[in-house]
């Protein structure tokens, strides 16, 4: 397993938690989530970390699609989460395009799939809009053994938030096995400034994805 980390500032409020029987130092970044619109910490203490599965060569990936959404019993997304979901997906699409990756339809056999998880400790637990634990259950297993949540498990409750986490995962286009992931984590404050939330989401996504190799095809 290859790991990369960037730490532009010191942050002492986070402790690593076990993931699939391994201690993983999570990244610290800014994010937003919840049934109410939760703004991220106003400070710019951003520390990011990524992991690549052993033996995986990401240089051959060029096209991608989003993991299809699945919900039970109709729409479960609040207005706040719709905003956050749209902003995260928009930021991911933009960063991947800037790196030379091309988005295709889900039925076009993409080289890889993309999904994200969004949750927080001490008051809010949740995931992304992917209600199917079959996606991405590969080498890393569950998202966090302490909570027992898989990638894509979506549950939210609006309370006072202490620590939030954003994880972006890349899955193999054929096997759906996890190939790569980037994690962002930060202390969250309950604010309602959409412009600030949007800017911080953009920055967090950019820092997570900047370690990916270029998706541009090279001439033979």
Radius of gyration from the CA trace? 16 Å
Percentage of residues in DSSP E strands: 15-25%
What share of residues is helical? 10-25%
Compute the average pLDDT: 66
Count all strands and give the number.
9
So what's the overall shape?
A: globular
* Number of helices, where a helix is a run of at least 4 consecutive DSSP H or I residues: 2
Helix and strand sequence: EEEEEHEEEEH
- Whole-number tally of structural domains: 1
Order of adjacent strands in the largest pleated sheet: 1-4-9-8-7-5-6
Measure the end-to-end span: 29 Å
Question: What's the arrangement of secondary structure elements?
Answer:
Elements: E1 2-6, E2 17-19, E3 22-24, E4 48-52, E5 63-66, H1 79-98, E6 102-103, E7 112-121, E8 163-172, E9 178-187, H2 194-209
Parallel strand pairs: 5-6, 5-7
Antiparallel strand pairs: 1-4, 2-3, 4-9, 7-8, 8-9
Helix pairs in contact: 1-2
What features would you highlight for this structure?
single chain, 220 residues, seven-stranded mixed beta sheet, 16% helix, alpha+beta
Describe this structure in a few short sentences.
This protein is an alpha+beta fold and 220 residues long.
Q: What does this protein look like?
A:
- By secondary structure, this protein is α+β, with helices and mostly antiparallel strands.
- It has one domain (2-209).
- It is built from two helices and nine strands; from the N terminus they run E-E-E-E-E-H-E-E-E-E-H.
- The strands form two sheets. It has a seven-stranded mixed beta sheet, covered by helices on one side. The chain has a two-stranded antiparallel sheet with strand order 2-3.
- Helix 1 packs parallel to helix 2.
- The protein is globular.
